[in-house]
Design goal:
Blueprint lengths: L2 H11 L18 E5 L6 E7 L2 E6 L2 E8 L4 E3 L5 E7 L5 E9 L5 E10 L10 E9 L5 E9 L6 E8 L8 H7 L9 E6 L32 H15 L3 E10 L1 H9 L7 E7 L12 E2 L2 E2 L1 H12 L13 H8 L2 H8 L5 H8 L5 H4 L14 E6 L7 H10 L8 E6 L12 E2 L2 E2 L4 H19 L9 E5 L4 E5 L8 E7 L5 E2 L9 E6 L32 H4 L5 E4 L7 E15 L5 E9 L13 E10 L18 E14 L4 E7 L28 E6 L3 E7 L2
Parallel strand pairs: 11-12, 11-13, 13-14, 14-17, 17-18, 18-21
Antiparallel strand pairs: 1-2, 1-8, 2-3, 3-4, 4-5, 5-6, 6-7, 7-8, 9-10, 10-12, 15-16, 19-20, 21-22, 23-24, 23-33, 25-32, 26-31, 27-30, 27-32, 27-33, 28-29, 28-31
């Protein structure tokens, strides 16, 4: 989602951002700095302020804390309770906070007092103005311009265009969300795209790219997000005083898609772009479909949130999504029950289930045929929404990179988590606040170099966080040239082996039942962007143990590893499989199976997904022209599980799970070939016997240790 929405998530998730208090008659005793025990990079400062306290830190404006009992304070609205601990001498030693978070129930965090002297955050003051910027066809777009008041310029622009609203932007939120770049001096501009929030015009989801090079491209009817960016930049450079004529465009998710389009036939003032987790092709591998499999709950929740109102309207589903979609049956029936039938993109889901012109016209990668501006692609290995986009954009741009201006960063993050200060993804601890490192060592130097001419940006080509060893790696190219592809076979006895099985006819089988699909995360499954309680954000890092005991999930694993195995590059699944049905989905998950005595107690016997993907069998020969699978005939399904940079440590096991349902993130395949799965009838859903033959394997890019 947009950086503003991620800032809201930052504020909701990080205990530091809702600092809480404790009360007593002597407020001075609470003054000091407090380090969070689980997030040691977060250090809060508590200040006495009359009859209450305030709390702040390097990424948070001061928040008042009002007394609520002995040694207890609460933040505004009582959202968080902050209870101080005292020793026998009456000295404050720390605090415990309680708040509602992204997981159900109350989240408890603890902090230790490390100093009696609090420190102010030294936020830089920014002014704020709102403007309406005219486009070439007469439509005006709403924007918020925020610039430092202590520096007159000339300054470069940082532009973020978004469908998620811009009114959030002010002095405090700029300092909080752009905590590294805000002190360095930029004019920040946040613009609502057509038809959203304060902007005029009609909103079109992932608006197709206009024929810029058409002889009639000067026609004002030929508009898209690229032309709107051009017109916005031209207006800013001309009308905002004391600017240096240089613009950097940034964005996460949908705004990442918009940042990409800023580099397609760019305005000459655009000198750098950073598409971060950009939507790129929502049918092939991003938000709405993966290899033809429809992402049902996400598509339902997102379209309802974006197209039922001019402003965000997320979080409408108030029951377990697994139960809701199973009871509804097909996607058509679910949409009718939820009132989505008239929403444009929902209609597109139902009417355009294949990779036709409707979806191809919205895909970005085919337009990335030259490097027009320096580009910093950013993605997360556990991105639950747009993992594919940044990897694909880098792959298609890099062959055209004559001047060495295309860069890629892949970190241990979910969708946009690099804006936060945290070392965790769910229960997984990566040992450092990796987002902080990215913002200070790569993102800020990138824009400073290309927008201000400042030295300090020296990324070779790719920065990748290697999980397992939990360290940042630097590569000259991706995939790294020293990785060697090795086949990891799914032997019929349930073992994974680098030795090709001797009997190619041997197989492992399971029965897939659409009436009892495998849930993709823990139930109850909340609405994707439910205001509280959604576990959507970190589900790719959830423990996979609940699924390895199901009879409809096939499992293979290596013996306990006697040495580290490093996988760095793109992981490929190559299944030789048959089904008794005439259509089938194939889900492959590469998993790190932790030992019973893991270094971190919460990881004992944990099964952490490292790479995973789904493939809808009807598209095995063509995404444009699906066809039935011959029943009980062995077919090949070869597809990418995307990038990984992970060390399976000595004492761990490598595990692979294969299944044919992943519900309700993906709609159920009836396992009977029908022209359009979106409109399948109840009788079309049948059980199927699935066989995975021993020649099946994962192609692992194994790097030297």
């Amino acid at each position: 989602m947009v950086r503003a929405a991620l800032l809201c998530l930052l504020l909701a998730v990080s205990p530091a951002l809702y600092a809480q208090g404790a009360a007593t008659n002597n407020l001075d005793r609470y003054a000091g700095q407090y380090r969070l025990n689980d997030e040691p990079e977060i250090v809060l400062s508590i200040f006495p302020a009359g009859d209450h306290l305030t709390v702040e830190w390097a990424r948070m404006a001061a928040i008042p804390l009002t007394p609520h009992g002995d040694n207890t304070f609460v933040s505004p609205g009582g959202k968080t309770r902050y209870s101080f601990a005292l020793n026998a001498a009456g000295t404050v030693t720390g605090f415990t906070s309680e708040r509602k978070g992204e997981t159900p129930g109350v989240i408890v965090e603890a902090a230790t007092k490390i100093s009696d002297t609090p420190v102010h955050n030294h936020f830089r003051p920014y002014s704020r103005v709102e403007v309406m910027i005219p486009m070439r066809d007469g439509i005006k777009l709403h924007a918020v311009i925020v610039r430092p008041t202590t520096q007159t310029g000339p300054l470069p622009f940082i532009l973020e265009r978004s469908p998620y609203g811009s009114n959030w932007a002010d002095s405090d939120t700029i300092n909080e969300s752009f905590n590294v770049m805000a002190p360095e001096g930029y004019i920040f501009v946040f613009e609502d795209i057509r038809g959203r929030y304060g902007s005029q015009g009609k909103f079109v989801m992932m608006r197709p790219i206009a024929p810029h090079h058409d002889p009639h491209s000067s026609n004002p009817k030929w508009i898209d997000e690229s032309t709107d960016t051009w017109d916005t930049v031209a207006w800013l450079v001309k009308n905002v005083p004391n600017n240096n004529g240089r613009v950097g465009v940034i964005g996460i998710s949908y705004p990442g898609f918009l940042a990409t389009e800023a580099g397609i036939d760019p305005n000459p003032a655009v000198k750098a772009i950073s598409p971060q987790a950009p939507m790129t092709d929502v049918w092939l591998g991003d938000d709405f479909f993966h290899n033809g499999a429809f992402r049902e709950t996400y598509g339902y929740d997102y379209v309802l949130g974006m197209e039922s109102s001019k402003e965000n309207a997320f979080g409408k589903l108030n029951e377990d999504a697994y139960t809701y979609f199973l009871k509804a049956g097909s996607a058509t029936a679910a949409g009718e029950e939820g009132g989505l039938t008239k929403l444009p993109t929902w209609q597109a889901f139902l009417q355009n289930p294949t990779y036709d012109q409707f979806w191809r016209s919205r895909a970005v990668q085919t337009h990335l045929t030259q490097v027009t501006v320096p580009t910093l692609e950013v993605g997360g290995y556990w991105d639950q929404e747009d993992m594919w986009g940044p990897q694909e954009q880098y792959a298609v741009l890099k062959p055209h990179d004559i001047k060495h201006e295309v860069f890629l960063v892949l970190g241990p993050w979910n969708h946009g988590e690099w804006v936060r200060t945290t070392r965790h993804l769910g229960v997984v601890d990566f040992g450092s606040a990796t987002g902080d490192w990215f913002r200070s060592e790569i993102e800020a130097p990138f824009f400073a170099y290309y927008l201000k001419g400042q030295p300090g940006f020296d990324l070779k080509d790719v920065a990748s966080f290697q999980s397992g060893t939990d360290r940042w790696m630097s590569y000259d190219e991706w995939p790294p040239k020293d990785s060697v592809d090795r086949n990891l076979y799914l032997a019929a006895n349930g073992t994974l082996t680098f030795t090709k099985p001797s009997d190619p006819k041997a197989y492992t089988q399971y029965v897939s039942d659409p009436a009892d699909p495998v849930n993709y995360r823990k139930r109850p499954i909340e609405a994707t962007y439910a205001p509280t309680g959604s576990r959507w954000y970190a589900w790719l890092a959830q423990d996979q143990r609940p699924y390895d005991q199901r009879s409809d999930v096939a499992v293979w694993e290596t013996p306990v590893l006697s040495k580290d195995v490093t996988v760095t590059g793109n992981v490929i699944a190559d299944l030789l499989a048959s089904t008794s049905g005439t259509d089938s989905d194939w889900v492959v998950k590469l998993i790190d199976a932790y030992p019973p005595d893991a270094k971190e107690k919460q990881m004992d016997n944990y099964q952490l997904m490292i790479a995973e993907e789904i493939f809808r069998g009807r598209y095995r020969t063509s995404f444009e022209h699906p066809d039935a699978i011959p029943a009980n005939k062995v077919e090949e399904y070869k597809y990418s599980l995307h990038a990984a940079d992970h060390v399976f440590l000595k004492g761990h096991r490598i595990m692979v799970q294969v299944q044919s349902t992943w519900f309700p993130l993906y709609d159920r395949n009836p396992q009977t070939f029908v022209p359009n799965i979106m409109t399948a009838n109840p009788a079309d859903y049948v059980k199927a016997t699935q066989k995975i033959f021993a020649g099946s394997h994962l192609i692992l890019p194994v790097a030297p240790n």
